[in-house]
Amino acid sequence: MEALLKLLSDNVAGYGxxxxxxxxxxxxxxxxxxxxxxxxxxxIVAVYAERKVAAHMQxxxxxxRVGGWHGWAQTIADGIKLLLKxxxxxxxxxxxxxxxxxLVVFAGGFASLVVLPFGAxxxxxxxxxxxxxxxxxSSLGVVGIIMAGWASNxxxxxxxxxxxxxxIVSYEIPAVMAILTVVIPVGSLSTQEIVRAQEGxxxxxxxxxxxxxVTAVAFLVYYLASLAEVNRTPFDIPEAESELVAGYHxxxxxxxxxxxxxxxxxxxxxxxxxxxTLFLGGWNSPVFGGPVAFMLKSVALVFVQFWLRWTLPRxxxxxxxxxxxxxxxxxxxxxxxxxxxxxxR
Amino acid sequence: xxxxxxxxNVLVFLAVGIFFLVFSLTLSSLVRxxxxxxxxxxxxxxxxxxxxxxxxxxxxxxxxxALIFIVFDVEVVFLVPWAVVFKKLGMFAFxxxxxxxxxxAVGLAYVWAKGDLQWVRPEERGSLAER
Lengths: 345, 131
What we know:
The structure holds 2 protein chains of 2 kinds. Chain A is an all-alpha fold.
């Protein structure tokens, strides 16, 4: 952000003579447009990748026709199809909430990108409450999901919305506790501070929190909880196709449905990116640092999400609550105490 | 850049995100078909006509879990500033945190013993078997 501001004032003639609020506003809008591009392109690549990964794990080929080479244009065609689809709002739906829900879900996921540290100076804004901000703003999605479930005037949607809410709030506590095991030794919530604390060490990876005793277990707790928070298999009962049709977005079609899918993939990327920031050293790398390393780590974690989806069956709702409240929550209590014991002098 | 201005980024992001959504929906509204019928607009229920209102009573367990969540979430929020200043306060913070987490753990143990962490409570299970 500061780098962008400096770039503009150095290279654009007369930039310094603009009104001061405009000087700050312009890089902000530019940065957010870059993130919109990321948010619009990432799902196109990720949906294609997921279909290919799924297919090859099941010894199929996946999409092969659209666009010629290995069906590369399949998701682009899907996007155009969604744009041309009729927009149906059920006759007795709560129209205001129905229209507002995709907006809340999408805006919550999108605003999380503000604090992701892509590189040493490639970050939109290094907020001093970074990690807490991500946890807070991404919980906005739950509100949107309940709104969608309630407003649809559909039993499947209501069940899906209720289940999603119960699941997301249950797994939020272990996730935050796992994040705290990293915050304790670093002493800051800023994402950049956390990444800088993982610089150096043995082979340039020795200081990553995944290679330290307590935080290694915390990474597992965080990863499981984050899977549940983005409703991915094995925690996808809110949209369990075999019993709830499509859960909270059963009644959505066209672009509104597209925004739910967009938000899902953005959230998958955000939780993976936060996992990479907290535990995998962020943009640090022994070979090449910066945005490339950060993106590779995040995408690797997204790949593991795909992998789990095609490996594990879906949990039942009672098993889901069991894992969260009776396994992950006590484990995260113990982890926070152990992290404290290691950090205390 | 001052810290308050950093937070302006969040507002800009929310505004641009909303703009992106409104823009896409408007674009779609220009090109998509409008052929509505009463059948098409009825709520989906596997092709049948919907039975009764969908805004039904739901399982009371959702409410209980929401209550437990509120209690623990508020307490976890107290742990966040504790974790940030942990290294400055040292042993004092560790003992304080230990006591706090112990109280939390007692709360968890109480809810656990009462059977409220089970989706189907034991006595409900018993009464089902009797029926």
